[in-house]
């Protein structure tokens, strides 16, 4: 088998194509994999002229069409078969040496295409998106599902816990990750009918380490390594955390600028501290979110990803591959379904 290849869709992001190309080229400082850029050939070649790189580790596939943010998923799959996103997913499905794909484009189309083209692992009910956010203790909390499935049945959320546990073992080296259920209270009788049923399934699930309900305001307190929820609640939690971090830093900046000399001197003394916190809260320092439960690694990068995030995404994928995450998920699903 040839060296593993990671497909990069260069189109569809806020910072296309330069952030995707730049990040992928930077990732080549680590050995062991090759990069396949897919997109409009002239656009990619123009961008590659800016860099010095090993030609043996880079290849290019021409895709004349581009998926736009307003395109509907099913229409793209039917009528934009020569788009970089759809061609990339088909390559991932059919070529054994292609181990993963990264796209920062249209989320709905990419996730739908991942399921319909790459396909689910046997026994997976609904693939789920797993995203990381920083915690008070300096760890990373996994939110799953972070937006792939708006409505989820209890049995789906129960399986998200299993998928995310496999992910955390492979990616974070946490052998028995703690799983919490996102709820409006910690009591086991809180929540909707769906949440209560989910709680009972999680509690009885011997393949996970369930620690009970987790309230959103305590989610970053290192109570759990994983918080599971339906895609709507998980996505709201994720965006609320991102938005709060941005707002707090804006408020601090406004207070410092509008304050007197004491505020400015205090800020100068705490500049390193503020910088460390900003770094920990910056999603650009974290790679993209994988869609767990597919036959191969399909990773969704943030639409506004910079090169740093794309580089990290490539490295994350290579780690998942080396840790045999897909194989571990297969085995876990098989055991749970016996």
Question: What is the element layout, followed by pairings?
Answer:
Blueprint: E1 5-9, H1 18-27, E2 34-39, H2 41-48, E3 58-62, H3 73-79, H4 84-94, E4 98-103, H5 107-118, E5 128-134, E6 140-144, H6 154-171, E7 178-183, H7 193-204, E8 209-215, E9 226-228, H8 231-258, H9 261-269, H10 271-281, E10 289-292, E11 297-300, H11 307-322, H12 325-336
Parallel strand pairs: 1-2, 1-4, 2-3, 4-11, 6-9, 7-8, 7-9
Antiparallel strand pairs: 5-6, 5-10, 10-11
Helix pairs in contact: 1-11, 3-5, 4-5, 6-7, 6-12
Give structural attributes.
alpha/beta, 17% strand, 338 residues, 46% helix, 12 helices, eleven-stranded mixed sheet
Could you describe the 3D structure shown?
The chain has helices at 18-27, 41-48, 73-79, 84-94, 107-118, 154-171, 193-204, 231-258, 261-269, 271-281, 307-322, 325-336; strands spanning 5-9, 34-39, 58-62, 98-103, 128-134, 140-144, 178-183, 209-215, 226-228, 289-292, 297-300. With 338 residues, the chain is of the alpha/beta class. Helix 1 (18-27) packs across helix 11 (307-322), helix 3 crosses helix 5 and helix 6 (154-171) packs across helix 7 (193-204). It has an eleven-stranded mixed beta sheet, with helices on both faces.
Main sheet: strand order: 3-2-1-4-11-10-5-6-9-7-8
Class per helix and strand makeup: alpha/beta
Main beta sheet: strand number and arrangement? 11 strands, mixed
Report how far the terminal alpha carbons are from each other: 33 Å
Give the topology string: H per helix, E per strand.
EHEHEHHEHEEHEHEEHHHEEHH
Mean pLDDT reading: 92
- Large-scale geometry: globular
Rg: 21 Å
Q: What portion of the residues fall into strands of 2 or more residues?
A: 15-25%
Low-pLDDT residue spans:
none
Helix count?
Answer: 12
Number of strands: 11
Instruction: Give the helix level as a range of percent.
Output: 40-55%
């Amino acid at each position: 088998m040839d060296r593993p290849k990671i497909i990069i869709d260069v189109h569809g992001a806020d910072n296309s194509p330069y952030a995707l190309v730049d990040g992928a080229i930077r990732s080549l400082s680590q050995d062991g994999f090759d990069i396949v850029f897919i997109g409009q050939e002239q656009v990619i070649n123009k961008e590659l002229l800016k860099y010095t790189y090993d030609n043996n580790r880079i290849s290019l596939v021409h895709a004349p069409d581009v998926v736009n943010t307003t395109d509907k998923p099913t229409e793209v799959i039917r009528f934009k078969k020569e788009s970089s996103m759809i061609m990339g997913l088909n390559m991932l499905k059919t070529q054994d040496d292609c181990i993963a794909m990264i796209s920062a484009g249209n989320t709905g189309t990419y996730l739908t295409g991942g399921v319909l083209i790459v396909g689910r692992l046997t026994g997976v009910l609904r693939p789920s998106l797993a995203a990381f956010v920083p915690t008070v203790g300096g760890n990373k909390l996994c939110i799953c599902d972070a937006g792939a499935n708006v409505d989820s049945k209890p049995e789906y959320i129960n399986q998200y816990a299993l998928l995310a546990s496999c992910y955390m073992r492979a990616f974070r080296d946490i052998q028995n990750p703690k799983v919490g259920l996102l709820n409006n209270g910690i009591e086991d009788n809180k929540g909707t009918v769906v949440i209560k049923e989910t709680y009972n399934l999680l509690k009885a699930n011997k393949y996970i380490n369930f620690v009970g309900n987790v309230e959103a305001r305590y989610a970053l307190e290192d109570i759990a390594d994983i918080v599971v929820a339906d895609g709507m609640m998980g996505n709201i939690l994720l965006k609320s955390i991102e938005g709060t971090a941005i707002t707090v830093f804006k408020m601090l900046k406004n207070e410092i600028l509008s304050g007197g000399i004491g505020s400015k001197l205090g800020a100068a003394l705490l500049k390193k501290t503020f910088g460390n916190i900003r770094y920990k809260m910056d999603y650009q320092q974290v790679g993209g979110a994988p869609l767990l439960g597919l036959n191969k690694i399909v990773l969704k990068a943030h639409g506004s990803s910079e090169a740093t995030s794309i580089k990290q995404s490539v490295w994350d994928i290579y780690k998942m591959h080396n840790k045999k995450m897909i194989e571990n998920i297969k085995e876990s699903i098989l055991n749970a379904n016996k």
